[in-house]
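anyone else get weird line breaks when pasting these?? whatever heres mine. first is seq + tokens for prot A
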Amino acid sequence: MRRTSAREYATGGSWFLSRCGAGAGTDRVYQDPRVIMNSLTMRYLCVMGGGAAGSLLRYTLAELLVARVPSRFPLATFLINITGSFLIGLVLGSIGDRDAVNLRALLVAGFLGGYTTFSAFEWELLRLGRTGLAVVYGAGSVVVGLGCCWAGAMLAGRR
């Protein structure tokens, strides 16, 4: 393992600083590790808070839909994944790939990561077995979800 020199560390050339968003090269001003850790802590809190809110919303909507529309077809998961696909297209299309790191952490990794239900999708697909309903659900989720993601990005003006 290579040791980081004092010059590299002072100019931000260390691996740790580059992984924390400080960039690379010797033309940068030294960044205090406490500031970097505070920004990472904030980003982690954004992901956790968004994830908790997204998971709670998913759970609440699923319970309401299942109670009101009983069906063998997993409608709740289908609708949640489709709206999540639309929202991720809308959010990332609106804020871009490099802007608003904490907002992206809150909304995309956190909220929409907690809101969408890929693992539930897979389980429900497995439970449906080798039926026409399984094909409709699996293919429909992917095709309609992709279309919704595209529509969200179009609405945001990014495509």
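and prot B, same format (seq, then tokens)
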Amino acid sequence: MRKNVRTVIVSSDAPGLGTLLQKGVGVRGRGGESVRHFLEREVGLAPEYVEQSVRTIFLNCAPADDIDALTVADGDVLSLSAAMPGLVGIAMGRNTLVSGFRSGISAKPGEVREGDALLTVKMFNLVARDAGPELLGRGVFLKAGQIRVALGENAPDNLPDDDEEVLLQTQ
């Protein structure tokens, strides 16, 4: 676990928060838990929302279908999107009729690495709009410099040095 992390509070309507969600924010969890469990427990998504609205999931840049069998580990990157349009949406979406054709690039269950984990979670389109505010309200980990860049002149004055990790929360 990380110690001595400064908490920074920003307004939930601060311009630039969507950019942070797209670039990725740090979310703590437990290595070895399933992707589904991580999304529900650590990110705070309702089971119905995961099943019906989060239609495209990438785990470390690989399309993820079986989110019950796939597990997370420290350092993983999890990208979340609602259904995408066109051929890309059909091909990369979770459990579609053609997802079997991309089995060579799909995420596969691997060695389970248990313990504390910090994952980068990226949210796009409707998922960012629907689930981003709650996640940011729970708190996410970022380098202070990332906050400065994304929020610009709206960045809090009390940020530490750019390379220092902080817990960003909205209210």
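btw re prot B: The chain has a mean pLDDT of 94. The two ends are 25 Å apart (CA to CA).
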